[in-house]
Design goal:
With 336 residues, the chain is an alpha/beta fold. It has ten helices and 14 strands.
Length: 336
């Protein structure tokens, strides 16, 4: 029995593939390498380069590899980009998943784990936000994921599939052994920007808004370590394999840190100072986003290992330092 991971060469997907490989699972990957890197895959894991929505490709992979479960990460994830080019998001997220599901149904795949997002909630009235909160996404990114959730639900009902939808909060950090991490150039996420500033790759970090009605005026987020997130998927896999019913689960720790606290954590672990500018609010930002984790903790057998901001910052920094060294040695090699 084999697990198919789409987007397995990307940031979160590659941590998933590593976790599966370390657990002795058979795993194959489909990734179009638009933002992923084949070097992020453990040796020996088959990679099929192409789109997760390419039904011919997917059907070939499903037929060749006796796939029992699909874990679907492939997609586009940048909120501001989705505002500029919504159709790209409906294509890469919603339509691609339609193709993937069509192939899965035709080939009789019975289990599906889907990467969704807290962005489906929009600006929630209740905090921490529970899964049953109204879904009112504020971006095409959130809408494209919500549409996929709805489609998956309908397909599962019609075709006897079971699924787990995992709604991610703020994913951060890197493999504790610094084998893989977030390598995408031009990433916009807070922790990534902070460790780039800490390693001297950018001159400063802007804090987008210090006038929110929060204790220190900056926004609050629930950061989850990417390796804990991968283990949550493994727990979801076990849940489905043992007959668990389709469900939707928040994936966070249920605890919020402010933007300023997060930057301070990076400063503490790196031991260096870097410039922090207080800037105006970023349009579309939600003030506070914290997961109600009651359901995931009761449904899955999942115990987070890295529920600590300093640990997340330490791992993110270690990976960034490794990445920066690669860039320098790559540049030197190019000169030589
Ligand atoms: N943020 C910031 N400076 C940055 C990047 C992000 O102040 O350079 C803030 C952003 O405004 C938000 C929080 O950090 O309040 C988390 O943003 P991110 O883009 O990491 O994730 P999001 O919660 O938007 O998905």
């Amino acid at each position: 029995m084999t697990v198919l991971v789409t987007g397995g060469a990307g940031y979160i997907g590659s941590h998933m593939v590593l976790a599966l490989a370390e657990a002795g699972e058979n795993v194959v990957v489909i990734d179009n390498l638009s933002t992923g890197f084949s070097s992020a895959l453990p040796e020996g894991v088959p990679l099929f380069i192409g789109d997760a929505g390419d039904e011919t490709l997917v059907e070939n992979v499903l037929a060749q590899h006796d796939i029992e479960t699909i874990i679907h990460f492939a997609g586009s994830v940048v909120v501001p980009e989705s505002m500029r080019d919504p159709l790209a998001y409906y294509r890469n997220n919603t339509m691609a998943t339609r193709g993937l599901l069509n192939a899965a149904v035709r080939c009789g795949v019975r289990r599906f784990i889907f990467s969704s997002t807290a962005a489906v909630y929009g600006n929630p009235e209740q905090m921490p936000v529970p899964e049953e909160a109204p879904t009112r996404p504020l971006s095409p990114y959130g809408s494209s994921k919500l549409m996929t959730e709805i489609m998956l639900h309908d397909v599962a009902m019609a075709h006897g599939m079971n699924y787990v939808v995992l709604r991610y909060f703020n994913v951060a950090g890197a493999d504790p052994q610094a084998r893989i991490g977030l390598s995408t150039m031009g990433a916009t996420h807070l922790l990534k920007i902070a460790v780039e500033a800490a390693t001297g790759q950018r001159a400063k970090i802007d804090v987008f808004g210090t006038d929110y009605p929060t204790p220190d005026g900056s926004c609050i987020r629930d950061f989850i370590h990417v390796s804990d997130l991968a283990q949550a998927h493994r727990a979801a896999l076990t849940y489905l394999r043992t007959g668990g019913r389709s469900t939707t689960l928040n994936c966070g720790y249920g605890r919020g840190y402010s933007v300023l606290e997060t930057i301070e954590a990076v400063r503490q672990v790196c031991g260096r100072n870097f410039a922090v500018h207080h800037s105006k609010r970023r349009p579309g930002d939600i003030m506070t986003m914290i997961a109600d984790t009651g359901r995931i903790r009761s449904v899955l057998d999942w115990t987070p290992q890295y529920d600590d901001l300093a640990t997340i910052a330490t791992h993110a920094l270690a990976w960034e330092e490794k990445l920066a060294q690669h860039h320098v040695s790559g540049a030197l090699a190019a000169i030589a």
